[in-house]
Amino acid sequence: MSIISFKGFSYAGKIVKVPIVQCFLARNASIKNEVQDIDVVTTTAEKALSEQEIRAICDKSRLNHGHRNLINGRVPYDEPVHRYHNTVKYKRKMYGRYGDASNVSPGLAWPTAEDLDDIREYESIAYPLTIQEMQKNALDLIEKERQEIQENQQRIDNNMKKLNGWLREVKEKSEKKLLEAQQAKDKKEKLIEEVKKHFGYKIDPKDDRFKEMLAKREKEEKKKIREEKKKVREEKLLNYLDSKAK
C-alpha cells in the first residue's frame, strides 16, 4: 500500500497541488522491519505546470526581478527602467559585463569625436612632453641619482681615511682641556695659599676679607696674563714687519 501526500501552493490566484515524494515502509508480522523501494509518483497536475510557473513557486528569496537576474548572472533589466539606464555610461558598463547578451551595440564603447577632442586637450595639458622626452628625463634623473650615490660613497671613503686623524685630534683636545682645567685648579689653590700667607694667620675661606683679597689677586693674575699675551702679539707683529722690510 502506497501513501501519497500533496502540498498546496497559491499561484496565479488558484491552488495548485504538487505531489511530494515520500518513502514508506511496509511491515510484515513474520519478518522484522525491512526497507521497501521508494515510489515516485507523478500526477497530471505536475505535468500541467510550466517550467516558469515552477520557478515562481519555488522562489522564496523575495528579491525583485533585477536583483534576481544579477545573482544568476543575467542582465538586470530587459528594458530601461530608470532614467540612467539610457545613459551611454550605463550601456557601456552592461556591454562590458554581459557582452552581446546585453543587447547593446558595441559601437557605444568607442568614444565620439567630441570625446576624442576632450581627451586630446586633456592629454596635451596633463602630459605636454612626448614619450621620448619623458624617457630622456627619466634617464637623466637616474644618472643624477647614480652620481649623487657615487659622490656620497666617495665622501664616506675619504672620511673613513681621516677617521684616525680626527680621533687623534679629539684625544689631544680632550687632554688639553683636562690639562688647562688642572692648571686652573692649581693656580686657584696657589692663590688661596698666597692669600692665607698674606694674612699671616689661619682664616676661614668664607670670611668676607678672604673673599675680597682672593678676588683682588685673581684680578691681578688675569691682568698679568693679558699683558703677557699682548707682549707676545707685539713681538709677532714686530717680527712680521721686520720680515716685510727685509
Annotation keywords:
246 residues, mainly alpha, 62% helix
What gyration radius follows from the Cα positions, in whole Å?
A: 54 Å
Mean pLDDT: 77
Helical/strand content category: mainly alpha
Q: Please tally the β strands and state the result.
A: 2
Largest sheet: 2 strands, antiparallel
User: What proportion strand?
Assistant: 5-15%
Shape: elongated
For the biggest β-sheet, the strand order reads 1-2
Distance between the termini: 147 Å
Protein described:
With 246 residues, the protein is mostly helical. The chain has helices spanning 44-48, 51-58, 65-71, 88-98, 113-126, 131-199, 208-245; strands at 5-11, 14-20. It has a two-stranded antiparallel ribbon. Strand 1 and strand 2 form a beta hairpin. Helix 6 (131-199) packs across helix 7.
Concise synopsis of the structure shown:
The protein has 246 residues and is mostly helical. The chain has 7 helices and 2 strands; from the N terminus they run ββααααααα. It is elongated, with a radius of gyration of 54 Å.
Which secondary structure elements does this structure contain, and how are they paired or packed?
Elements: E1 5-11, E2 14-20, H1 44-48, H2 51-58, H3 65-71, H4 88-98, H5 113-126, H6 131-199, H7 208-245
Antiparallel strand pairs: 1-2
